[in-house]
Amino acid sequence: MHHIVPRVIAKPKRKTPIWSKKTEIVSLAFDLIASKDAILYPQYTTGLHAWFLDQVRSIDPDLSAYLHDGQSEKAFTISNLEGNLIVSGQHLHAIANQSYRWYVTGLSKELVQCLEIWLKQLPSTIALRHCPLVIQNCELALPATTYRELYNAELINQTIKLSFVTPTSFRRRSHHFPLPVPSTVFQSYLRRWNNFSGMEFDSTEFSDWVENNVTINRHRIASEKVAAGKRGMVTGFTGMVEFGLSSKREPNPEFEKLYYALYRLAPYCGTGHKTTFGLGQTRACWIEEETIEAPSLQTILAQRIEELTEKFRIQRKRTGGERADLIAEKWATILARRELGESIIAIAEDLEIPYETAKSYLKLARRAINVGAG
């Protein structure tokens, strides 16, 4: 008889990152190991988001509530898991004993101080629903810094390159805007800057300056629609963009310094919206396309939600109105996520609706599909 020997994950030997008391911005990289083979649901970053806020809550409940509800610009970002996640059919698989990397950034002094306390009592495992991830190590992904240091750093005086490694999009007039227009990109960074730096600049004046003086020298981008956050879909872009300053630019030393400071801020704060759910991850370099991983399962889910929403809208067109559209999208989201194997309990929690309501919507959605098929 053969005995199965369980695979043992080595006990981590972790070092705690340290930084000075004046630090206002940190970027942390966590090395994780999956403790078992497990299926990840497409929107697993909502679980990472919730887990992180729960960790903050254990140290500072008021700060956690503020990060969740209290501000338009969030003082943190999180990434997707980087590593060998296997797509099989409609599922994403984490592999036992495989290493994964996860990034968390803090963008305010208050949060950075909380992170310092947290790292000294860091738990051994990230409880990600059915996929526990053992924390092997945590280190600084980028130098700990302050907004003043970013602003006073030596001018680059050359083109700057940014790579958008996860789908990136902006809000414009209640729609998604998936293009790296210079004024839109740098306004995204300036909003964070003005919220957290204590060095506020006039948003309109800087936007006009960027519009008139910053050019796109080259780009290599592609668009993608993904399911992101707790609800809804996002059309975003991934790829690389090289920005430059026009040779005929208007002299403005203050805005030029700000322009380069925001470029340095970009890999910390991410670009666009839903950066607290893994979108808009940004690197201050040119990364070749083949190294940028597309969240294909999120794309599959987004396409299915879109397909189902349209079917339900057509069936409900006699009732019309905005409410009918919202119900159609909610039915589609619940059914599509259930088809990918998520539990009704988990879906209800993410959508912040009662379990019985989610169960009822799922039943109505399945009935509508059967009626349409008939």
Features:
Alpha-Beta Plaits; alpha+beta; 4-stranded antiparallel β-sheet; single chain; 374 residues
Layout of secondary structure:
Layout: E1 25-34, E2 38-40, H1 45-59, H2 61-69, E3 76-78, E4 82-83, E5 86-88, E6 91-94, E7 99-106, H3 109-120, E8 125-128, E9 131-145, H4 147-152, E10 160-168, E11 170-172, E12 175-177, H5 182-196, H6 203-213, E13 214-227, E14 233-245, H7 253-269, E15 282-283, H8 296-315, H9 321-339, H10 344-351, H11 355-373
What's the quick description here?
By secondary structure, the protein is α+β, with helices and mostly antiparallel strands.
Shape: globular
Q: What is the radius of gyration? A: 22 Å
User: What CATH architecture of the largest domain do you see?
Assistant: 2-Layer Sandwich
- The low-confidence parts are 1-8
Determine the CATH topology of the largest domain. Answer: Alpha-Beta Plaits
Q: What series of H and E elements makes up the topology?
A: EEHHEEEEEHEEHEEEHHEEHEHHHH
Tell me the number of helical segments per DSSP (H or I, 4 or more residues long): 11
- N/C terminus separation: 54 Å
InterPro entries: CRISPR-assoc_Cas6-like_N, CRISPR-assoc_Cas6_C, CRISPR-assoc_prot_Cas6, CRISPR-assoc_prot_Cas6_N_sf
Pfam families: CRISPR_Cas6, CRISPR_Cas6_N
Domain CRISPR-associated protein Cas6 C-terminal: 162-282
Keywords: Antiviral defense, Endonuclease, Hydrolase, Nuclease
